[in-house]
Amino acid sequence: MVKGTTTLTATNIPTNLVYSSSKAYTEEDILGWITFNRTVNSSDVTFTIKDSSNTPVTSMQNAGTYTIVIVVSETATHSGFNNSDNPLTVTIAQAEYTSYSALPTIGTATYGNTLEDVSITSTISGETWSWQTPTDLVGNAGTQTHYAIYDGGNANYKPTAFELEVVVSKKEVTLTINNSTFTYNGKSQYITYTVTDGSTVLANI
């Protein structure tokens, strides 16, 4: 008697899995993602799941790519199945942070600065902050909002942008009087002055 073959179809493996602290994917989930060409008892199937570092695990939860080897026992009428040469793969993507541990320390900002001139430092060890668009101007004097990238140091989450407030100070300029003394000539005479920002002349009046 020639035994029938055992084949597996894996067309239901989800491609949009995202890390969740409340969900781990187990053998029960895998059975829902695959179909055999014959009736197979769950007791006749063994799974070997390995994580991104090739370490065997019992479930899939952390972000990363997992490989799944499925072995089905041989029966009196059908051959067994083993996909060790071509294991299934399941990828769980990093989630986005929905909050951060603490506000960063933001340095002094002055009108005319760009964000890269303004320091942004995490107050929590192992966490980092950086400006999303560091070459953007900080904006007018007052309280402005800019996006910064937060990385909490958890491999299950990807760096996420949050809107932060930046207090922008007014910039001081230099007013130089060009002529402060006059000799009477019977005509109207006026003081002239120059307004400068460093080496940049803003106005000659």
Q: What does this 3D model show about the protein?
A:
This protein is mainly β. It is about 5% helix and about 35% strand. It is built from one helix and 18 strands. The strands form six sheets. Strands 3, 4, 5, 6 and 7 form a five-stranded antiparallel sheet that branches. The protein has a four-stranded mixed sheet with strand order 10-15-13-12, with no helix packed on it. The protein has a three-stranded antiparallel sheet with strand order 16-17-18, with no helix packed on it. The longest helix is centred in the first third of the chain and has 7 residues, at about 25-35. The radius of gyration is 33 Å and the shape is rod-shaped. The model has no long low-confidence stretch (mean pLDDT about 90).
In short:
This protein has 205 residues and is mainly beta. The chain contains one helix and 18 strands. Strands 3, 4, 5, 6 and 7 form a five-stranded antiparallel sheet that branches. A four-stranded mixed sheet has the order 10-15-13-12, with no helix packed on it.
